[in-house]
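User: RNA transcription, translation and transport factor protein. Structure?
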Amino acid sequence: DETEFRNFIVWLEDQKIRHYKIEDRGNLRNIHSEEWPKSFEKYMKDVNCPFKIQERQETVDWLLGLAVRLEYGDNADKYKDSTPDGAKNADNTAKNAEPLINLDVNNPDFKAGVMALANLLQIQRHDDYLVMLKAIRILVQERLTQDAIAKASQSKEGLPVALEKHILGFDTGDAVINEAAQILRLLHIEELRELQTKINEAIVAVQAIIADPKTDHRLGKVGR
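Assistant: Predicted structure:
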């Protein structure tokens, strides 16, 4: 509609673009004048629009872009952090799904945070911050989960071990290293025992499924 188009152009100039002084907008505002097309053509040249007046769709799009740029320039502080609601929701969904997808490993804040965590958890420093972050993840998974904390809080009674009574089988030439090796060997033996216990439990569970229903391993006998 020609009238709506002319009103639209006047509204953009009055409210957003404001290229002319108020007193110089008379010819553009006179939308019912036969001279309005000439006034509009002059206006397009004055605002440096690259399109001809016959190219209305392109002209409208360009003027809207100009209006948006000017509106933003006048209220940059207001709009600089604004995002469309749809994009905001999409960004939040993406962040919830992949919180580290846009992580900048060279960001000083990231490096400082990893270093602070490493110091807090007493993890050895490394030149690669991603390696330290991986070590932190492993430690948290193995030591700081609810199951790990519950297991660690269970008191285990045992007898003190005299290392000198356990033969290492080789000599490194350093007493401290020999003692560390003895401790590691004892820990390894303990892990093997736990593994064997789990294997035995698995075997019993399988037997309970595939064995004759009359077989009751808990009673230590077969049949009734």
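The chain has a mean pLDDT of 79. Strands lie at 215-216, 221-222.
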